[in-house]
Write a structure and sequence with these properties.
Length: 119
């Protein structure tokens, strides 16, 4: 497997809330069939980031990219996520972890949201 992606989001007990994040994962699986992708949540539902990473590592992932599915770099992205990734690095010393910026801060996402808002 080698490289894998974890879509990391806040989480909710409401299963409908998870649908957009899971739809992104499904789209990745369809458009990039060779890439492994998992969803992970901070709270309110499973799997946690640690659980999702452990599953991917067990399947052979040696490089994990964590994509924060947040509109901005709030407390979860600035404080919680770095702490969780530090724990992952300790738990999986042979795995490389890369954390992207919050998805909402990408200029392409900003442009897409503006286009959608103006429709």
């Amino acid at each position: 497997m080698g490289q894998a992606i974890v879509l990391f989001s806040h989480g909710s007990r409401d299963p409908l809330w998870r649908a957009p994040v899971e739809a992104v994962a499904a789209r990745i699986r369809t458009s990039h069939p060779g890439r492994s992708v998992a969803c992970a949540y901070l709270e309110g539902c499973a799997p946690s980031l640690a659980q999702a990473a452990a599953r991917l590592v067990a399947r052979g992932a040696t490089r994990l990219t964590v994509v924060p599915m947040f509109l901005g770099s709030g407390r979860h992205a600035r404080e919680d996520l770095p702490r969780l990734v530090a724990q992952l690095r300790c738990a999986h010393p042979g795995v490389q972890f890369h954390v992207q910026a919050a998805i909402g801060e990408d200029p392409r996402m900003t442009a897409l949201m503006a286009d959608i808002a103006c429709e």
